[in-house]
Design brief:
The protein has helices at about 15-25, 50-60, 80, 95-100, 105-110, 120-125, 150-155, 175-185, 210-215, 230-235, 250, 265-280, 285-290, 295-310, and strands at about 1-5, 30-35, 70-75, 90, 115-120, 130-135, 160-165, 195-200, 215-220, 240-245, 260. With about 325 residues, the chain is α/β, with parallel strands linked by helices.
Length: about 325
């Protein structure tokens, strides 16, 4: 199967690792990315009308390359994927393109796509239409539990401190770093050891497992999410998670202990304190098997098969940009 991937964040780890898993199953990809220097964490930033109009031309030139389908990642690439009639379109939405300012584009384009993939039932409800709910998969061979003392030596964190991992850049507004600071500050001084908020971003994706094994807990305080990979990767490392009730976090952590999912600062503060005081790792890896990379690969292959096997009308409807 030959697939043309459209994206505006070609280095997004959750996308590239899923594509690599699909390639091992026989799918061949060509990837085209919207021009511009932008972080995978913020795919809608630093891109203007000129870059997206140019991307229309790129896609139209590529569409005669013998592809079986186009897989558009992130809502802003959907209009380009739909500006052709020859090839079926699968659209994957990432979260901020359903809950943020890009949402109107995603909602407008979704009915014209042959299949829409979202990461959680919450995203499906927000989009207001039937979708395939497929969370991003976690690589259980890469993210594995390890000795905490060795991991702390590796990342340079002190043993005499409770280390709380915040795995995002502080300037990413949707991740709500000020709330994470507020929660950790409230817990610090109430336990037998100091509590430190360890902010980690910009490191190689494969190295994140060392920070998760070094941490006493991962703290997620996002305003909104789809299916946050950091939570699932922490689960795979048996790192306890304390999180706001966003995306599919409550579902993922339903049977994980110790963990905490809450809406209020007070409950998050109490939950973090209890997790740190317990001094134990979680049983998250067992729950993470439900969203292993192998399972999500199977699910996406099923979507690809359904879409390419459908008898499509001679002329597909085209959404206006």
């Amino acid at each position: 199967m030959n697939v043309l991937t459209l994206t505006n964040a070609a280095d997004a780890p959750f996308m590239t690792q899923q594509m690599a898993a699909l390639e091992r199953r026989g799918v061949r990809f060509e990837t085209r990315c919207v021009a511009g220097d932008v972080s995978a964490d913020s795919p809608s930033e630093s891109r203007g009308l000129r870059e997206y109009l140019s991307f229309f031309r790129t896609v139209r030139q590529e569409v005669d390359g013998g592809y079986d389908l186009i897989h558009a990642h992130y809502g802003l690439t959907a209009p380009m994927a739909l500006a052709q009639r020859q090839v079926p379109v699968v659209l994957s939405l990432w979260g901020s393109d359903v809950h943020g300012p890009v949402a109107p584009i995603s909602r407008t384009c979704a009915p014209f796509c042959d299949a829409v993939i979202v990461m959680s039932p919450e995203m499906q409800n927000a989009l207001g239409r039937d979708c395939r709910v497929i969370p991003d998969g976690v690589d259980l061979e890469l993210f594995t539990p390890g000795a905490q003392s060795l991991a702390r030596d590796r990342v340079g964190w002190p043993d005499e401190t409770y280390n709380v991992l915040f795995p995002y850049a502080p300037d990413r507004a949707v991740k709500n770093y000020p709330r994470a600071e507020r929660i950790v500050d409230a817990v610090d001084g109430t336990l037998d050891r100091p509590v430190a908020l360890q902010t980690v971003s910009g490191v190689d994706h494969a190295d994140m497992r060392h920070y998760m094994n070094a941490a006493d807990a991962l703290l997620l305080t996002s305003h909104s999410e789809g299916s946050p990979n950091a939570v699932k990767e922490a689960m795979a490392c048996n790192c306890p998670v304390v999180a706001t009730d966003v995306g599919d976090v409550r579902e993922r952590l339903a049977d994980v202990s110790p963990s905490c999912v809450a809406a209020s600062d007070e409950t998050l503060i109490d939950g973090l304190a209890q997790v740190l005081e317990s001094g134990t790792r979680s049983n998250g890896r067992d729950a993470a098997r439900e969203v292993s990379l192998e399972r999500t690969t199977d699910a996406i292959l099923e979507v690809y098969g359904d879409v390419t096997g459908l008898e499509r009308p001679a002329k597909r409807p085209v959404a206006s940009p």
